[in-house]
Predict the 3D structure of the following.
Amino acid sequence: MKKILKLIAILLMLAGGFSSCQDDDYNPLLNTKWKLVGIVDAETGDLRELEPKDCDDCYTLTFDTDNTFSGRITVNIVLGRYKINYKTDVHSFTAGIATGAIDGGDGYLYGQILVEIQSFTINDTFPRILYLHYNNGKNYLKFKEIGG
């Protein structure tokens, strides 16, 4: 009986070791698409939805396989890079806006915020939610995952 328990303990430790190795390479954003829910005040929880609301492609981000992302504001596109490092808990995000016209609705505000993003977190349970933090953590953009 002791040999069986010892074997089970060894198998559990090995399984834990393998899963932690996999977690280092795990990227919850890989090949995903997200739609903005709104801008949130972290202290009060107040959510502001951006206009136009009836635009399916507006305020979206798509994360690619090479730690890059792209998206659409209202007229303009956004391009950037992100990095996930779970060993140091650093999740960085850098965005650049490809401008060609003035964005309508709240697009200008959204574009200004995107270039100010300092970090991100993700709720990796259903429904998956992405939080892009800015203003020293006082505010964040809240996204929900949508089909790719």
User: Anything to note?
Assistant: The longest strand covers residues 32-41. The CA atoms of residues 122 and 130 lie 5 Å apart.
